[in-house]
Amino acid sequence: MKKLDLVAAVLLVVGGLNWGLVAIAKFDLVAALFGLEFGETNALTRIVYGLVGLSAVYVAAQLRAIPRRWSTTTSHPRAHSTAA
């Protein structure tokens, strides 16, 4: 599940950056990466946009569970060592 959490987080960052660029600079990064103009789509860009949307749904649904999955309940052996 941690890998899925990471993939979802990366896709949300990509989506957030893309929307920020659209708002600030009228630049669609996803379209540009696939050689398209602002506002144009093809199958690949729609897949990326769809994955970003699915990531948002996943993270929203898992909002309470993700911190529990990522918290460490056992102490790591090196966590309490001091530098000599």
Automatic annotation (TrEMBL):
Pfam families cross-referenced by the UniProt entry: DUF378
Residue ranges crossing the lipid bilayer per the database entry: 47-66
Protein keywords: Membrane, Transmembrane, Transmembrane helix
Database matches in InterPro entries: DUF378
Name by which UniProt lists this protein: DUF378 domain-containing protein
Native organism taxonomy: Bacteria, Bacillati, Actinomycetota, Actinomycetes, Propionibacteriales
